[in-house]
Design a protein that fits this description.
Blueprint: E1 3-7, H1 12-23, E2 27-32, E3 50-54, H2 60-70, E4 74-77, H3 84-89, H4 91-112, E5 117-123, H5 146-165, E6 168-174, E7 177-178, H6 187-199, E8 206-208, E9 214-215, E10 218-219, H7 220-231, E11 238-241, E12 247-248, H8 249-259, E13 268-270, H9 288-294, H10 302-323
Length: 324
């Protein structure tokens, strides 16, 4: 039985990946920070089949122990301080967790499971103010946030581990990917959650910053499969995962509100103070290489993705109101 260790297992991608791997017969271990809160809600459906180990990207000793206990064949490193907006307020923490945390994790694997395959969750935010569009594997990095800069450092550290130490390391340069498990702090989930609350009469307004910001939004479920495909490749490499489509925050609002039978212009208010200190006008990726080499196929359209998120939030609120 193949053994996998997932950092960031309590997040959107980690929980979806855990379920994906369990369905393929893997033994799955997840790294979680010790907390006093309830069991992570995203793992409820799979909790009985998971092995969870305490660990923290700020603590090398805990990572060494986790890798030794998990004895993984594959390591999926997804954990990070991943909210771009928060990285402007917490640049040092972001660099320490997202950047140096990756170095600590690589070292733990190099020393305790040297034959394991390692997946590094790189990000389209590394491209930042890209010199050309669409962005490909060879597009220069020009990050526009502390998060993007930390991811560039983590990415190069992973590539260096492959080239200097001969580790089996692949990096997935994933563009924005969303779904019902997205954190409420991200703009896509803020929109779908607000639509549901407005539909049920719990709110009347949603405040956003830059409606013209454009992103290449895909489905987290589709992208988790891409991660796994990278780890099954004959040789490690770096691949861009994207839809090749660009949509604005305004378009996301239009689709989400219309799906719930609402007019977005009646409820969305723009607040310039919600804008980031520096932002990216638009990102759009070219996934030609992973499609050709690994057979990855995007299955979820932009419209379907938005509607899935609205449906999930409508169901959550209906359930909560029912409990009330």
């Amino acid at each position: 039985m193949t053994s996998a260790l997932i950092t960031g297992i309590t997040g959107q991608d980690g929980s979806l990946l855990a379920e994906f791997l369990l369905a393929k017969g893997y033994r799955v271990t997840g790294l979680v920070r010790r907390t006093s809160g309830d069991f992570p809600w995203r793992l409820e459906a799979s909790r009985s089949r998971l092995n969870l180990i305490d660990g923290d990207l700020l603590d090398s000793g805990s990572l060494f122990r986790a890798v030794e206990l998990a004895a993984p064949d594959e390591v999926y490193h997804l954990a990070a301080q991943s909210f771009v907006g928060a990285s402007f307020d917490q640049p040092e923490l972001t660099a320490n967790v997202t950047g140096l945390g990756t170095v600590r994790m690589i070292e733990a694997v190099r020393r305790c499971a040297p034959h394991a395959r390692f997946y590094q969750a790189s990000s389209s935010e590394m491209f930042g103010d890209a010199p050309h569009s669409p962005q490909r594997e060879n597009t220069p990095f020009r990050p526009r946030s502390p998060y993007g800069a930390a991811k560039v450092f983590a990415h190069h550290s992973a590539v260096n581990a492959r080239e200097a130490h001969g580790m089996w390391v692949s990096c997935g340069i994933l563009f924005n990917h969303e779904g019902p498990r997205r954190g409420i702090e991200f703009v896509t989930r803020r929109i779908s959650h607000a639509v549901a609350r407005i539909k049920f009469g719990l709110d009347s307004e949603l405040t956003l910053g830059n409606l013209d910001a454009r992103r290449d939004w895909g489905s987290a479920t589709d992208y988790v499969e891409a991660m796994w495909l990278m780890m099954q490749a004959d040789e490690p490499s770096d691949w861009v995962v994207a839809t090749g489509e660009s949509h604005s925050v305004r378009e996301f609002c239009e689709v989400a509100f219309a799906y719930a039978g609402l007019n977005w212009t009646d409820h969305v208010r723009v607040d310039p103070d919600r804008r980031r200190p520096t932002d990216i006008t638009g990102l759009i990726g070219d996934a030609t290489r992973i499609e050709a080499e690994l057979g990855w196929v995007r299955k979820t359209s932009f419209k379907s993705l938005v509607e899935q998120m609205v449906d999930a939030d409508l169901a959550r609120i209906a359930q909560n109101l029912g409990k009330g």
